[in-house]
Design goal:
It catalyses: (6R)-5,10-methenyltetrahydrofolate + H2O = (6R)-10-formyltetrahydrofolate + H(+); (6R)-5,10-methylene-5,6,7,8-tetrahydrofolate + NADP(+) = (6R)-5,10-methenyltetrahydrofolate + NADPH. This protein is an alpha/beta fold. The chain has helices at 8-30, 45-60, 76-88, 107-113, 125-132, 141-154, 172-181, 196-201, 250-254, 267-286; strands at 4-5, 35-41, 64-70, 94-97, 161-165, 185-189, 205-208, 226-229, 233-238, 241-245, 259-260. 44% of the residues are buried. It binds NADPH dihydro-nicotinamide-adenine-dinucleotide phosphate.
Length: 293
Amino acid sequence: MSADIIDGKAFAAEVRTRVAEHVRRLTDEHGIVPGLAVVLVGEDPASQVYVRSKNKQTVEAGMNSYEHKLPADTSETDLLALIRQLNEDPAVHGILVQLPLPDHMNSDIVINAISPAKDVDGFHISNVGLLGTGQKSMVPCTPLGCLMLLRDRLGSLSGLNAVVLGRSNIVGKPMAQLLLGDSCTVTIAHSRTKDVEAVCRGADILVAAVGRPQMVTKDWVKPGATVIDVGINRIDAGEGKTRLVGDCDFDSCAEVAGAITPVPGGVGPMTIACLLANTVTACCRANGLAEPD
Ligand code: NDP
């Protein structure tokens, strides 16, 4: 292996420390405690784990966490009523509705019911538009975490060739917007891309967000490239056990990349750290106070 490992776990811990310091100042100097409301509909096991983790880290950062667990058969009307109530609650600065929602709900309608100022996931259509036009917005947590890791590793990203593998609304597209905002030359590749391997091999920065376990191997990676692996895939590890892997074959890619994020311990921890940071940002904006850097 020749690549440096980008330690997202350690970086996320630093972000959380900075968030906690900002929260302490808000509380001590202004008597304000930022609050994050997380809404979970149904019993999806992975979502339950994420929500528990978000709740724990929110409290550890000194913020208030409001958890709303609703049964899977909750009507969309009732969920929208809860969102309206949270929109109006001055103690709640950030609202997150855990996805995926049950099939009988329209997630676009639900997400767009969240007040854009409290939309700490950055999925509301207003925030998507603001990001796309380079205006101040709420930035989706996972791409924001990737950008922070890239800036930390590379300094200026200006002029670099970036390939984003995947075009989802929650990762691929906002990631591409952020990289464009940092003056990269951006290509978005997806399942219809011709010779996707060659496209990826042209990348100084390769962000893989496809949800295909270990799809990207060393033949896809330009020597010295920085590889950010967003994928979280659980695969069979034999003897009835499972393990988490990314969208990149770590050992193979690490032979040629300059730097690479591991799975777990790369992008994953950054997502919640950025959620906490977004909640503090939303709180500062709501109170007309200086935002964290
Ligand atoms: P989606 O399934 O919404 O999107 C996957 C994208 O990958 C699509 O654009 C699809 O193309 C593209 N794709 C699929 N197969 C191929 C292929 N063979 N070649 C090229 N492109 C392909 O996934 P998400 O964006 O939601 O998530 C991606 C991964 O990131 C998942 O593993 C997920 O678990 C993980 N994730 C991790 C997070 C974290 O905190 N670290 C947060 C969110 C997601 P097309 O549009 O043409 O179908």
